[in-house]
Amino acid sequence: MxxxxxxxxxxxxxxxxxxxxxxxxxxxxxxNLSTGRREHVPAGCRFIYGDVSNPILKTxxxxxxxxxxxxxQDKVLGK
Length: 79
Fold this sequence. Notes:
Blueprint lengths: L1 E5 L4 H12 L3 E6 L14 E4 L5 H9 L4 E4 L8
């Protein structure tokens, strides 16, 4: 199954993405790197630099064959 994990450059998001890959799933990640680091994203995950609060970015990623969405972020801009 295809998964979209936001916040995968953070501790929890990276762990979720790594677990999904270990289970044989494909994983795309979105992170704005405001609190995470790019090197935390597991190898094998497709990385998109961006913010999930951007509705266009989120819609495009979900529509492009993402079946499950994990939103793991500690804050959203403007909140």
